[in-house]
Amino acid sequence: MVNPLKNGSGEGKYRPQNQSQTRKEMVQTDAKLTIVEELEEGAFGKVFRANMGDKDVVLKSVSRAINHSQETVQKEYAFGMKLKHPNLIKMRSTFDTPDSHCLVMDLIEGVNFFQLVEDNGFRAIPETRVIKIFRGLAKGLEYSHSMGVAHMDIKLENIMLSSDDHVTLIDFGLAVEGTTCEQYRGSPDYASPERWMDQPYDTKPSDVWSLGVVLFVLLTGSMPFESSEYVAKMKESTKSFPWPRGVEISQDVKELCASMLEYNPADRPTMKEVLKHKWLSKPTLLQRLSPKLSRRTTRP
Fold first, then answer.
1. Taking CA 107 as the corner, what is the angle to CA 98 and CA 24, rounded to the nearest 5 degrees?
2. What GO molecular function annotation could you give as one example from this UniProt entry (predicted)?
């Protein structure tokens, strides 16, 4: 099947390597870290699976030849240490080698959201499942925003899903601290309109837009806008949002998604407001069953 979702990134996309190549090029590490295999390689560096004692971890190695690579790695580590939340990636350590700047972080066993949608045949994921996994993602981003950090590269590939549907937002390499950004950041298909305007823009509403794109893809299996007509179509379509035919979802989630994809950043909800939206405030199945289960267990 042809992949209908774009996969571009403002940071460079990693690509899987053949297993026969994984052990040929190792990076120098400290004595506590043992490399198991190379997972991915891209223009900026490599990603390895490794062991730190009895813990499986990810080692991200960024080439020193890349401009500002040390600053980028140090900032990503600092954000990871600052942001302590179950739905955000956990950092372990950072160190340098003669050729690279390295980050060590928790290994998330599972798939990213792009793989989730791909494995589902680029069809809509059931809304009952979307609400569960999106709630965790929204909680993580709301916490990040409350701590003054905008992610700036929210996309399917940067969201991990474990086998029990636990969600983890990863890769804070393009994140910024503060409310304003003066440079384009992120991946084109997820970038808000204001990122293209060559002028300072508010970071948190821009994150909300990107998260709205992710929500749209989960609900429909497709991107909300074609790249070739991106900015023009964004402005034109948000008033009467272009939901694909045949997609059966509730009006509540349609309203939430459309509000997150408002052209004007000031018209988008904050992440706190997203979490309070009636679609996400619906009780889960376990919450609905809890009172009944409690009554059963307290009967004499």
1. 45
2. protein serine/threonine kinase activity
Burial of 123 (0-12, 13-18, 19+ CB in 10 A): exposed
Query: What values do phi and psi take at 174, rounded to 5?
Result: -110, 5
For residues 128 and 88, give the distance between their C-alpha atoms in angstroms, rounded to a whole number.
23
Helix (H), strand (E) at residue 233: helix 230-237
Count other C-beta atoms under 10 Å from residue 205's C-beta.
22
**How many angstroms separate the CA atoms of 150 and 142, rounded?**
10
Question: Is the Cβ–Cβ distance between 141 and 271 less than 8 Å?
Answer: yes
End-to-end CA distance of the chain: 59
DSSP code at position 66: S
Q: What is the pLDDT of residues 254-291, one digit of tens each?
A: 999 999 999 999 999 999 999 999 999 876 655 555 55
Domains (range + CATH), the chain: 15-106 (3.30.200.20), 111-276 (1.10.510.10)
Q: What positions carry a catalytic annotation?
A: 153
The SS3 call for residue 221 is coil
